[in-house]
Amino acid sequence: MPGRGAAAGRIFAYGATAGLLGDRLFGDPRRGHPVAAFGRAASAVERVLWRDHRGWGALHTAVCVGGAAGAAALAARGVRDHRAASVALTAAATWAVVGGTSLGREARAIGDALAAGDIGLARERLPRLCGRDPQALDGQQIARAVVESVAENTSDAVVGALVWGAVAGVPGLVGFRAVNTLDAMVGHKSAVHRRFGWASARLDDVVGWPGARLTAALAVPAGGDPRGAVRAARRDAGRHPSPNAGPVEASFAGALGVRLGGTLAYGGRIEHRPVLNGEGRPVEVADIERAVRLSRRVSTLALAACVAGRLGYGAIRRAAASRAGAAAAGKGHG
């Protein structure tokens, strides 16, 4: 169905653009956020299914992610014959699952607290952005944690969702956010979730792979030091314990000319991570704003890349279908 394929590309282009613009203008919904509703539902399912076993964790992941993506697929199917409604659904889904504006607001709020010398307020707000132990960090370490979180969440909260939206429409958008949210809930290595959250963590690694690579690649032209971004990504990305955070954080470090990584504290657990872009300078408070601006530029470029990719794929399919039709017609005449 060449016509339907072309329409699907335009629906994603219009809907994703409107949804990302909605996030830029309004941020996350103040009340009734769909991601929060998913989190409550996933917690309820966990209370029923929890066992200290990988198999039960895999079932939990399948139920939660499959349920969210399945509901999105049914909604998309219900409006597929109405282009305006399909665009509106795509826009609403995009707005609901991306979180670039909220990410920037939280980062800037911590930066403002640090600039004012209020480290207590900065420590109080840090858990809204990442899982670090704020009481173990001084001002410079908090600033570094914020920059690292902005980098990683540019992929998790924006680019990854756009990539899967381009691939699979509304179910891709919703499914990606479900996986990412579930990983944040149970994918960490706590005593309770070490086995139960294994499937969620591994699935998040898989679905996050393309978005992380696109984010790292786009940080090169979007940042202030393209050569530094390429150099840091090539040399240091594989040293990070996360297969997806590594490329993103290394590329951002090089683009910003700062040094990331080192000793971290998570819930009383100390981790000594490799330094990324070791020749860079230590992170300063002003680098938080620079990281947020880089994140916004990367997000804009990611939207353009995903729209272009989706439209280009549709054009290739239409050309292939036309050639196949012409070949079939030629054989018929022969």
Describe this structure in words.
- The model has no long low-confidence stretch (mean pLDDT 92).
- It contains eleven helices and three strands.
- Helix 5 runs antiparallel to helix 11.
- A three-stranded mixed β-sheet has the order 2-1-3.
- It is globular, with a radius of gyration of 21 Å.
- With 334 residues, the chain is mainly alpha-helical.
Protein traits:
single chain; about 325 residues; mainly alpha; 3-stranded mixed β-sheet; 11 helices; 3 strands
Termini distance? 26 Å
Q: How large is the radius of gyration? A: 21 Å
Structural class: mainly alpha
Q: Kindly report the spatial arrangement of strands forming the biggest sheet.
A: 2-1-3
Main beta sheet strand tally, sense and closure: 3 strands, mixed
Provide the residue-averaged pLDDT: 92
Our estimate of the beta-strand percent is 5-15%
- Point out poorly predicted stretches: none
The percent range for helix content is over 70%
The gross shape turns out to be globular
How do the helices and strands follow one another from N- to C-terminus? HHHHHHHHHHEEEH
Q: How many β-strands, per DSSP?
A: 3
Write the topology of this structure.
Elements: H1 2-26, H2 34-49, H3 54-78, H4 83-97, H5 100-115, H6 119-125, H7 139-186, H8 198-222, H9 226-236, H10 245-256, E1 258-266, E2 269-276, E3 281-282, H11 286-333
Parallel strand pairs: 1-3
Antiparallel strand pairs: 1-2
Helix pairs in contact: 1-4, 1-7, 1-11, 2-3, 2-7, 3-7, 4-7, 5-6, 5-7, 5-11, 7-8, 7-10, 7-11, 8-9, 8-10, 8-11, 9-10
